[in-house]
Structure formats: structure tokens, C-alpha cells
């Protein structure tokens, strides 16, 4: 039987192996997947800039949403977003390295609430995101794997 930490790490590895959007398209890195927590990183590239020459907010949202997905699936129950919101606090610029840390706030029954914090390489918080999750049938990896 795996410990909760080992299970979360295996879940993160399995999800990331199948996550072409994060891994290949956006080049987001999975730094950690722990019980109720996750951390991901993304470097702002030229093709991520909008008409104001700052990182497109939708891509910052995607970093936060992806981190949310890993945090809420870390218990090996297939979990999806039921709702979320984001507050943009500072712009991200070309070359910035954005790290998102997500933490489970509440998990009751099939529902959870998770907070994400996106910071740049200087430790400045550029966005905060809150997601509500709902677990559905199934597991990410086979039970007992």
C-alpha cells in the first residue's frame, strides 16, 4: 500500500505523462504533486504575449487551472472543476518564470476548495485563483498500483 505522499506523486506522474497541453504545448513543468497540493512552473515566451506585450491572462489562468487539477486529483479520485475564479494582480513579462502553488483548503465528500497563488521569479504574486472541485467516478491510477 502506498503512502498518501507516494500515491500523490504517482498520480502526478501519470497525469503529466498524458498531459500534452501542459507538457508539450505550453511547456509547463510539474514540480510537485503531494496530497492536496501541487506546484507547477511556466516560463513566459514570445508566443505567449498579447497585444500589450504582457503574458496573455488566459495562459496564466491555464497555469493556475492546471495546478488546481493536479492538487485536487492528488488523492487518486478523478476530480474535475465545478467552478473557479482568478484575480490578476500584476502583469507577467517576456522571460518571467511563473510558479503556481496550489493548496487544498477544504475537502468534504465529493467537493473541495483549492487556492492557487501564481508568483514570478522575484516572489511577486501576480495572480490568485480559487477553484471548486467535484469528484466523479474512477481513479487516476488503478487502486493498489
From TrEMBL:
Q: Which NCBIfam families match?
A: PaaD (TIGR02286), unchar_dom_1 (TIGR00369)
Thioesterase domain residues are: 54-126
Which InterPro entries does its entry note?
Answer: Acyl-CoA_thioesterase_PaaI, HotDog_dom_sf, PaaD, PAAI_dom, Thioestr_dom
Lineage, top-rank taxon, reads Bacteria
Native organism is Ramlibacter alkalitolerans
- RNA-binding found in the keyword field: no
> What's the protein name?
Hydroxyphenylacetyl-CoA thioesterase PaaI
Instruction: Tell me which UniProt keywords the record has, alphabetically.
Output: Hydrolase
Which Pfam families does this entry report, sorted A to Z? 4HBT
The keyword Cell division is assigned to this record: no
Amino acid at each position: 500500500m502506498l503512502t498518501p505522499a507516494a500515491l500523490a506523486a504517482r498520480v502526478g506522474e501519470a497525469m503529466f505523462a498524458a498531459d500534452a497541453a501542459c507538457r508539450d504545448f505550453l511547456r509547463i513543468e510539474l514540480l510537485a504533486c503531494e496530497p492536496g497540493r501541487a506546484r507547477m512552473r511556466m516560463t513566459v515566451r514570445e508566443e505567449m504575449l498579447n497585444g500589450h506585450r504582457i503574458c496573455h491572462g488566459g495562459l496564466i489562468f491555464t497555469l493556475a487551472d492546471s495546478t488546481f487539477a493536479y492538487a485536487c486529483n492528488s488523492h487518486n479520485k478523478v476530480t474535475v472543476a465545478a467552478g473557479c475564479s482568478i484575480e490578476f494582480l500584476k502583469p507577467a513579462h517576456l522571460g518571467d518564470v511563473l510558479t503556481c502553488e496550489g493548496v487544498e483548503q477544504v475537502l468534504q465528500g465529493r467537493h473541495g476548495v483549492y487556492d492557487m497563488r501564481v508568483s514570478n521569479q522575484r516572489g511577486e504574486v501576480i495572480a490568485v485563483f480559487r477553484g471548486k472541485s467535484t469528484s466523479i467516478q474512477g481513479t487516476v491510477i488503478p487502486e493498489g498500483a
